[in-house]
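Propose amino acids for all 370 sites.
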């Protein structure tokens, strides 16, 4: 393996909070050489040149995966691991600018008798997916699965909502990272005794690198931002669900496990008031306002197409469906921009909740015409 101090690529991947069936701490580092012109052989025997970024002559690439380890310990553990097998730790002293985080999670474990407030149909996870995502955006994802891997019913087994950077800011104005918010049990939770931490679910927030075009590095500032945003998201979800995150006595609804003790810290980020009820009221008011003020025929046609067509819809599609000029459709859509989102020649209703309200209005209008 060829390495040089001035040409290195340290960790690309940090994970925290993901556990196997027994909840062990884990740390795996895969080291691979990199140099300009390096070739790789595929499983079928074909050989091709591996892409190495310009500016890197000779280096090593390190991919780290871990669980139940603080974010700030990864680089230190990498250096210790390298030293233990005879690799000079100086090769891993300073992260290269291309280094980035691919996955990360922070979580708390909640007593199963209290966690229903988090994953309830009107709880914060479902509400965020219902109110904060457009009705057909590609990265929108809401999962509500109450059945474990063996087909047994377990309420809250795996409930998640994924929010991209724009939507995450509607709930957390100073956040930038796309996230998945979730409530989930271990795979064998049903078989665990009551006093086992694995019998109780986690509420967590994980960084979703695939939901944006930017990257998060591995500098101290990047790690601080990552931990703050994930912690604040989890705390805010718990508070919105009505759970006590700072009990005066005992641990309240929170449960310690093999690696993390429940503790109230003065430096914990303040939970943010999610105000999902206010978001819901605002969206209702917008729909009612447009219905009361009256919609033009082209606006009605546009909304009708949006609530009945399940695929991608563009202004040109709407114009073709209703024999209108595309500019007339664009002009009509500009008049209802608080109901719709237009991006890259695509149109969609602002949220699932708005879509439901508009669908009801369209149906009522059709019945009135009949």
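Proposal:
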């Amino acid at each position: 393996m060829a390495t040089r101090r001035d040409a290195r690529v340290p960790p690309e991947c940090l994970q925290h909070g993901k556990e196997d069936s027994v909840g062990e701490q884990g740390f795996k580092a895969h080291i691979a050489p990199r140099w300009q012109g390096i070739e790789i052989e595929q499983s079928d025997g074909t050989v091709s040149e591996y892409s190495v970024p310009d500016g890197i002559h000779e280096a090593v690439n390190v991919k780290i995966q871990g669980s139940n380890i603080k974010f700030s310990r990864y680089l230190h553990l990498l250096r210790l691991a390298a030293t233990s097998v005879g690799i000079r730790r100086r090769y891993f002293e300073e992260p290269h600018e291309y280094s980035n985080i691919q996955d990360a999670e922070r979580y708390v474990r909640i007593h199963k008798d209290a966690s229903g407030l988090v994953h309830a149909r009107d709880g914060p996870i479902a509400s965020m997916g219902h109110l904060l995502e457009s009705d057909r955006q590609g990265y929108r994802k809401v999962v509500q699965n109450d059945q474990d891997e063996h087909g047994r019913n377990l309420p809250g087994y795996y409930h998640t909502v994924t929010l991209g950077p724009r939507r995450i800011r509607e709930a957390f104005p100073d956040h930038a990272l796309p996230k998945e918010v979730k409530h989930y049990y271990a795979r064998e939770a049903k078989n665990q005794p009551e006093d086992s931490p694995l019998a109780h679910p986690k509420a967590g927030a994980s960084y979703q690198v695939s939901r944006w075009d930017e990257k998060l590095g591995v500098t101290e500032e990047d790690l601080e931002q990552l931990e703050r945003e994930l912690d604040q998201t989890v705390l805010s979800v718990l508070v919105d669900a009505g759970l006590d995150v700072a009990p005066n006595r005992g641990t309240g609804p929170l449960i310690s496990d093999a690696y993390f003790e429940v503790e109230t810290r003065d430096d914990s980020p303040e939970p943010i008031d999610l105000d999902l009820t206010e978001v819901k009221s605002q969206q209702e008011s917008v729909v009612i306002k447009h219905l009361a003020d009256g919609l033009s025929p082209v606006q009605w046609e546009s909304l009708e197409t949006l609530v009945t067509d399940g695929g991608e819809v563009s202004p040109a599609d709407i114009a073709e469906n209703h024999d209108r000029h595309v500019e007339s459709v664009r002009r009509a859509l500009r008049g209802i921009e608080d109901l719709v989102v237009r991006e890259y020649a695509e149109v969609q209703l602002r949220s699932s909740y708005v879509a439901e309200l508009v669908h009801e209005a369209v149906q009522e209008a059709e019945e009135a015409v009949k």
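The chain has ten helices and 13 strands. The radius of gyration is 25 Å.
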